[in-house]
Write a structure and sequence with these properties.
Blueprint (H helix, E strand, L loop, with lengths): L1 H12 L2 H14 L4 H13 L4 H17 L3 H14 L1 H4 L3 H18 L6 H17 L5 H19 L6 H14 L15 H26 L4 H16 L4 H14 L4 H13 L4 H14 L4 H13 L4 H12 L6 H17 L7 H15 L5 H17 L4 H15 L3 H13 L3 H11 L8 H16 L2 H29 L8 H11 L32 H17 L34 E5 L7 H7 L6 E8 L6 E9 L2 H8 L5 E2 L2 E2 L1 E4 L2 H15 L1
Antiparallel strand pairs: 1-3, 1-6, 2-3, 4-5
Helix pairs in contact: 1-2, 3-4, 4-5, 5-7, 7-8, 8-9, 9-10, 11-12, 12-13, 13-14, 14-15, 14-16, 15-16, 16-17, 16-18, 17-18, 18-19, 19-20, 20-21, 20-22, 21-22, 22-23, 23-24, 24-25, 26-27
Protein name: RRM domain-containing protein
Keywords: mRNA processing, mRNA splicing, Nucleus, Repeat, RNA-binding
Pfam families: RRM_1 (PF00076), Suf (PF05843)
């Protein structure tokens, strides 16, 4: 609109140089309307002088008729050439050939236009009749010219046009002037049978189309209604299977509704299916993408069409670069264009294209799309890229680099790891796939992804690994799965306290067990649990419990200890045990913590709970149990805790989080040292004695 307004202002001011520059600038980005081309040509004609001006104006008309079908613009073009071209006005042989070729082009472009096509036929006939009048002296040439005029009448009478009856009358009249009819008032006398048959068929065809033409006239002020009428009209024409008539109807439609993407999509698809003429396809796609730059499907179809007609790589690259400079509603549409380009390059590899073109296209796509594209689409891009690096580029290191870069940006997304692992498995690289499982099994993924990757590792080792590999996977995965189950249970308890047991029940139970205990006034220093004397437990009636169930019972007993005195990992005295007493042989002894993989935390915010501590270590995983020390009387946190980990690797990772903030305080984290705790307690006892 701004371009059009500027052109109007400059036209009124009369500044022809700025006006010409403004028109060229607008046409650089947008097609001009037929009216704008007519005004431009008229302005240039008013200032024209000499042969050079004629050539420039002729080029202007040529550019105009290439953009839209407009009968008035064609008539202006024909009249201008007929009047100002010296070779045409002098009726030289070259001039006659040039003018006839131009008329034939006009007839091809708009001669089938039902309501206005007859204007082009009439102009063509008038031109040939004018030539006939100057050939009076040469009977042979005159006879040839008469036959040309008669052939034009016959051709026009076979076309369903709005004024076909008047054309027949004009034909009868002309034949009468030439002395070839006895009754000019008759509609059928002396008309060749083949011409009469074609005329009747054309009349029937016009009558079948008249309803659509009437509807177009009625819907002139409503673009939406006009579009619907055109679509119905086009569907009707397609049912007859005449590509030329369908093409002209599409041209009529897009000239009146130039920014209708539905019309352009339908038009280009029809040409791809039927005509497949390279020059026509290029012209229509070029105009379609200039009118509807924001429709990515048009650009995609444009690239595919160029590939079908064996267009050059330079032409394909030019169209691709134009496409990615446009503004599309979503990033997925840019992705589709990039992938279409890669598809084309991949198919062109046998012709000698360099794989570096594919790689660079992927690099550009990843750089441009990654910040805004969804994870599913990015996975599609990276998976395709890595696959081509392996299969065509024969570079497994480059394929791995693709996935490693993806992990840097989306390492918390399970699907990225799955695609990476799948690629290694497909290539037969089981060692590399196993290394990836070791890297990702302890990571936190959304939903049930953490459990899924653990089970996937075990399944992988069952299918591809040795027994040692399988055992190692089980050893690594089991504590992780237990941790995930416990965390899930705590989350459910937090969301619905009535549906799950509370953690404080352990403390209550332990306190209740200690009440009836008759301890001596002098407390003996507790001794360490000897390795050759494992704690006895009361067995249930089911003697076939699994190893995981045994771990669960230990974790529950550990919870009881955490709510009592947990100053050091020592064994508690049980009921009935005193200075000289014996315990009941059926009484189970409490669970003993070895502290081999335990971290001691201090300076914990008093508001922190076990869930906060578990969340603090969620990034490294491996947490087996948490023992938050509480005051016996108030049950409030003392700011100290022991955290048990599944292995030393996780313990070391936890210690590296020393001095990081948990809630509002920086916590201190160190390995738990039971020997120090024992020495401190013995020293305290001696001092009291």
């Amino acid at each position: 609109k701004q371009h059009a307004f500027l052109i109007q202002c400059l036209r009124k001011s009369g500044n022809i140089e700025k006006l010409r520059a403004a028109r060229e600038e607008m046409n650089k980005y947008f097609p001009l309307t037929p009216k704008m081309w007519q005004d431009w040509a008229k302005d240039e004609i008013s200032l024209s002088s000499g042969r050079g001006s004629f050539d420039d104006i002729e080029k202007l008309y040529e550019r105009g008729v290439q953009e839209y079908l407009n009968i008035k613009l064609w008539r202006d073009y024909l009249d201008y050439v007929e009047e100002h071209d010296q070779s045409v006005s002098q009726c030289s042989q070259s001039g006659l050939s040039k003018m006839r070729d131009l008329y034939e082009r006009a007839i091809t472009a708009g001669g089938l236009h039902v309501t206005e096509g007859s204007k082009l036929w009439e102009a063509y006939r008038e031109y040939e009749m004018a030539i006939l009048t100057i050939n009076d002296g040469n009977d042979e040439e005159k006879a040839k010219q008469v036959q040309r005029v008669r052939a034009l009448f016959h051709r026009q009478l076979s076309v369903p046009l709005a004024d076909i009856e008047s054309t027949l009358a004009a034909y009868k009249s002309w034949e009468a002037e030439e002395g070839n009819t006895r009754d000019p008032d008759s509609q059928v006398d002396d008309v060749p049978p083949n011409v009469l048959s074609a005329y009747k068929k054309a009349s029937e065809m016009y009558n079948a189309r008249k309803q659509y033409e009437d509807e177009l006239s009625d819907a002139a002020e409503s673009e939406a209604n006009k579009l619907q009428v055109f679509l119905k009209y086009i569907k009707f024409e397609e049912s007859f299977g005449d590509p030329a008539r369908v093409q002209v109807l599409y041209e009529r439609a897009v000239s009146e509704l130039p920014v209708s993407s539905d019309l352009w999509m339908g038009y280009t698809s029809y040409l791809d299916r039927t005509l497949k003429v390279p020059a026509i396809l290029k012209s229509v796609y070029h105009r379609a993408t200039r009118n509807c730059t924001w429709v990515s499907d048009l650009w995609v179809h444009y690239l595919l069409s160029l590939e079908r007609i064996r267009a050059s790589e330079d032409e394909l690259r030019h169209v691709f670069e134009l496409a990615i400079q446009c503004s599309f509603p979503s990033m997925n549409e840019y992705l589709n264009i990039y992938l279409t380009r890669v598809d084309s390059l991949r198919r062109g590899m046998p012709t000698g294209l360099d794989f570096e073109l594919i790689r660079q296209t992927f690099v550009d796509a990843a750089e441009f799309l990654s910040p805004q594209l969804g994870i599913e689409e990015l996975l599609l891009l990276h998976a395709y890229w890595a696959k081509l690096e392996c299969n065509i580029g024969k570079d497994i290191a480059a394929a791995r680099a693709v996935w490693e870069n993806a992990l840097k940006k989306s390492g918390c997304v399970l699907e990225v790891w799955q695609h990476y692992i799948s690629m290694e498995i497909e290539m037969g690289h089981t060692h590399e796939a196993r290394s990836l499982y070791k890297r990702c099994y302890s990571k936190k993924f959304a939903g049930s992804g953490s459990e899924a990757v653990c089970h996937a590792w075990i399944r992988f080792e069952r299918e591809h690994g040795t027994l040692d590999d399988y055992d190692l996977a089980i050893k690594k995965v089991t504590p992780r799965l237990k941790e995930l189950i416990m965390f899930k249970a705590q989350q459910e308890a937090k969301s619905d306290p009535s549906s799950a047991p509370k953690e404080t029940s352990y403390a209550n139970d332990s306190s209740q067990k200690r009440k009836p205990s008759k301890m001596t006034s002098k407390v003996q220093p507790p001794a360490k649990k000897r390795k050759d004397n494992p704690p006895k437990k009361t067995m249930s009636s089911d003697d076939h419990r699994s190893k995981e169930q045994s771990i669960d019972s230990h974790l529950q007993e550990a919870g009881e200890v955490s709510k009592g005195k947990a100053e050091a990992p020592v064994e508690m005295k049980v009921e009935g045990e005193s200075k000289g007493g014996n315990t009941s042989s059926n009484q189970p002894k409490p669970y003993f913590y070895s502290d081999k993989c335990t971290a001691y935390m201090s300076n914990i915010d008093l508001k922190a709970t076990e869930l906060h501590i578990r969340g603090f270590f969620s990034d490294i995983g491996g947490v087996v149990d948490i023992r938050l020390l509480r005051d016996r009387s108030t049950k409030k946190s003392r700011g100290l805790a022991y955290v048990d980990f599944s292995d030393k690797d996780h313990l070391e990772a936890a210690i590296r989080k020393n001095k990081q903030k948990l809630l509002s305080k920086k916590v201190s984290i160190a390995p738990s040292d039971p020997s120090k705790s024992k020495k401190n307690r013995e020293a305290g006892t001696s001092f009291k004695d």
